[in-house]
Design a protein that fits this description.
The complex is a heterodimer.
Chain A (H helix, E strand, L loop, with lengths): L10 H4 E15 H5 L7 E3 L6 E4 L10 E9 L11 H15 L11 E2 L10 E2 L1 E7 L1 H4 L2 E2 L5 E5 L14 E5 L16 E10 L10 E7 L4 E5 L31 H7 L2 H9 L2 E21 L13 E2 L2 E2 L10 E10 L5 E14 L4 E8 L1
Chain B lengths: L10 E8 L2 E7 L2 E4 L21 E2 L14 E5 L12 H6 L5 E3 L5 E2 L2 E5 L5 H5 L1 H6 L10 E2 L2 E2 L5 E5 L8 E2 L5 E6 L2 E7 L6 E6 L9 E6 L4 E4 L6 E6 L3 E4 L21 E22 L21 E3 L4 E3 L22 E10 L5 E14 L4 E8 L1
Antiparallel strand pairs in B: 1-20, 2-3, 2-20, 4-7, 5-6, 8-11, 9-10, 11-17, 12-20, 13-14, 13-20, 14-15, 15-16, 16-17, 18-19, 20-25, 21-22, 23-24
The chains are: A mainly beta, B mainly beta.
Chain lengths: 365, 380
């Protein structure tokens, strides 16, 4: 290779930049989240502001962080927390500042149920936040693939029967109907439908119950998913609201949990109601493609020492024979002829004066 | 926020060369990497979801239920991008817009190949490599007075590059042969030239002899020593006394020894070589610089912003910077000094795109009388 034949690439014709979307399917079953390892994969902190969920007991070096759960209560909420009031308020405000932004007066905007902030409409005052790990969301959550199944059977039990009635929360219109008026990128509306049980929802329709921020990897859920219509939620009044392990008993609703329980207690209640969670993610792979064109009258000789035998070209038996070479490697050089990269062919390519090739070299970065 | 340009003396790119140590203990067909026992999971025999005795490349699917794995996929399009595991014919048979899937459950471990017949593809494929390293030692020669690797019994141990990095560090290879827990042979590349010389136990048969060679860059250990280390005959590839050609018997070669009788075990240790490029950046906060903040709390809240406007003017009254200088006296206002607290250093590219943020553990107090240099290190 010492005296390789350099051929300049025409940047306009021979070099093209492309982008490939690579996806990953991320299934997170409820059993990992709420039972397989007891609470060994659930990490609570002294500050008590959120709870981390791992896919394996977190003391193991093999454990991967999956997501964090926390709750926030907005300043305009009808609920007044008595436990961790300032933390719940601060969390709501911090998440809203980052994900929704400010209005013209500099005030923090609230999470809007349909994303149309200017039009007003219903706001999410009491929010449950799922912050997914960057390891899982990568560049972004793939639009239209988010699915969260929550057990909403009203009675509080620990035998799995809470999953007899379920809601399915999806970003149903995410692939086409996503919104862009957030400081952190695209987001979609999360809709809830009944997926198991009878007379779960007040009306046979899908309800907007949250927002999913695709690039940030944050799901914002309204507490209305656990309340019946009488309490401002979406569940059928005859079905009743969901009973949880509250500050005083196991027959309290999400409102009592948000006001009286610590944030970690609220996270426990949500986590043990998670039947299944799955989404796909997207990674953008940027590539440059170099079309290395080998004309018929080029690269038919080699500077390899083995090309010569007794000062004669080894592949020619007669003077009139056409020269032949075998292309094994393409070297990419910089402006000053410094070797940047080499591309190897899986097998040598026979090159003679009656053949032409275009070797497509792809460089991912 | 002030933006400064790094000067030539503020940026350094270095390479850190590290030598991670590895050990492989093999007994009765089981391999223990770095003395780590197999940890069974609730859903799988090995919590890493790879075969026992292997390392997981991604450690992504930890103890997951069957059919519940994280896996990559892409959609077939005109770019014809695919995974390496998909054959060309399989790819061509797929329709455009088809989903092409792969797996993250990739694993690696050492393996052993025992050759005592003429057919020895792995050894013959390395003929040129063996001959190339003969400048280090004549024992590398494929065929020499020390033996002909085409015909002699060869025990070839293969080490994947993920388990050593760029190369195996010379002088770190150590092989120990145990019989029922008693050391009966030890090899070291003590001359740093790839020769595996028997160094122990002291006075043992074959002490000082070369039992094989190491291909440092390629990750192979080729053992040819065929002298008896122990007179007891047990089951190896053939029923025989213990020799170096049986070293690592059971290491992913599909064989194992029963533990109910006299048995052997093996320990292989070495250090790999890895290179990590790091960029070091020095960000300076000099005297009389960075003493102002855009943070709203920098301004005293007690002075409301007043303005006056008319047909020819718009005038804002100056804002007062909050005086946070400490005073021991509550009834006396200390002399004003500009004080800021530096909490982050942001790195921008030439187009002023934010490309990185370095945070300090606790905010650093900055006045006009002191200066700091923040050392930022980035693995690249």
């Amino acid at each position: 290779m010492a005296d390789s034949f350099y051929k300049s690439l025409d940047v306009g014709k021979d070099v093209v930049s492309t982008r490939t979307l690579l996806h990953e399917a991320i299934p997170l079953t409820g059993t990992i989240v709420s039972g397989t390892y007891g609470t060994n994969n659930i990490k609570n902190y002294a500050h008590g502001m959120f709870q981390s969920v791992y896919d394996y007991p977190y003391l193991s070096s093999s454990a991967n962080h999956i997501f964090d759960i926390t709750v926030g209560v907005g300043a305009k909420s009808s609920l007044t927390p008595v436990t961790q009031l300032s933390k719940k308020l601060n969390i709501y405000n911090q998440m809203a500042q980052v994900l929704v932004g400010y209005d013209a007066t500099g005030s923090v905007l609230q999470f809007d149920e349909d994303g149309d902030i200017l039009a007003g409409g219903d706001k999410i005052d009491n929010a449950i936040f799922l912050n997914f790990s960057r390891l899982l969301t990568k560049d972004e959550i793939k639009k239209g693939t988010f699915q969260l199944d929550l057990g909403v059977h009203p009675a509080y039990t620990e035998d799995g029967s809470v999953f007899n009635s379920r809601l399915r929360i999806t970003d149903a219109s995410g692939s086409t109907g996503y919104l862009v008026n957030s400081p952190v990128g695209d987001y979609g509306i999360l809709y809830a439908t009944a997926s198991a049980g009878t007379d779960v929802l007040a009306l046979n329709q899908s309800y907007p119950v949250g927002l999913l921020y695709y690039q940030a990897g944050v799901a914002v859920l309204s507490s209305s998913i656990f309340n019946d219509v009488a309490l401002g939620g979406i569940l059928n009044n005859s079905f009743g609201h969901v009973l949880m392990n509250g500050p005083s008993s196991t027959s309290e609703g999400i409102n009592q949990v948000l006001t009286g329980s610590a944030i970690t207690g609220s996270a426990d209640n949500l986590r043990t109601r998670m039947y299944n969670l799955q989404f796909n993610n997207t990674v953008e792979l940027n590539s440059s493609i170099y079309f290395c064109r080998v004309n018929h009258n080029e690269f038919n000789y080699s500077t390899n020492p083995t090309y010569l035998s007794e000062s004669k070209i080894r592949v020619k038996t007669q003077a009139s024979d056409q020269p032949v070479s075998y292309i094994t490697t393409v070297g990419l050089y910089g402006d000053n002829n410094e070797l940047y990269a080499t591309a190897k062919l899986s097998e040598p390519l026979k090159k003679s004066s009656d053949t032409e090739f275009t070797i497509r070299v792809r460089l991912d970065y | 926020m002030a933006i400064f340009k790094f000067s030539e003396d503020d940026l350094f790119t270095n390479t850190i060369e590290a030598y991670p140590q590895y050990s492989f203990y093999t007994q009765s067909g089981s391999i223990y990497i770095n003395n780590r026992p197999n940890v069974p999971g609730i859903n799988s025999a090995n919590s890493l979801d790879v075969p026992v005795g292997y390392i997981s490349l991604y450690e992504y699917n930890i103890d997951r239920p069957a059919n519940n794995y994280i896996y990559p996929f892409l959609i077939k399009d005109g770019m014809r991008t695919s995974f390496k595991t998909i054959t060309g014919s399989a790819f061509n048979s797929l329709q455009f817009e088809s989903v092409i899937t792969s797996s993250y459950r990739m694993s690696a471990s050492i393996s052993r190949n025992f050759y005592n017949s003429a057919t020895r593809p792995f050894v013959s494929a390395l003929q040129n490599v063996f001959n190339y390293y003969s400048y280090l030692s004549p024992h590398y020669q494929y065929s020499s007075s020390f033996g002909d690797k085409a015909t002699q019994t060869v025990n070839l141990i293969s080490i994947p590059s993920i388990l050593y990095g760029s190369s195996i560090k010379k002088g770190t290879v150590n092989l120990k042969f145990y019989m029922s827990g008693t050391l009966i042979g030890e090899l070291q590349d003590r001359n740093y030239n790839g020769e595996l010389v028997q160094v122990g136990p002291v006075g043992s048969t074959g002490s000082g002899s070369v039992a094989g060679v190491v291909l440092y860059n390629e990750g192979f250990v080729a053992l040819t020593g065929s002298w008896s280390l122990n007179p007891d005959t047990i089951d190896y590839d053939i029923s025989d006394s213990s020799k170096w050609i049986y070293f690592n018997y059971g290491a992913n070669d599909g064989k194992s020894q029963s533990l109910t009788s006299l048995s052997s075990s093996f320990l292989m240790e070495y250090s790999g070589t890895t290179h990590i490029q790091t960029m070091t950046m020095f960000a300076h906060a000099r005297y009389s610089q960075l003493n102002y903040s855009n943070n709203p709390t920098f301004i005293s809240s007690s002075t409301a912003q007043a303005y006056a406007s008319g047909s020819l003017k718009y005038y804002e009254t100056p804002k007062e910077i909050k005086n946070i200088v400490y005073s021991d006296f509550v009834d006396e206002k200390p002399e004003f000094k500009k004080v800021t607290y530096i909490s982050k250093v942001a790195i921008y590219d030439k187009d002023k795109n934010l490309i990185g943020i370095a945070k300090v553990a606790t905010p650093v107090r900055k006045t006009e009388e002191n200066q700091y240099t923040f050392k930022l290190k980035l693995d690249i």
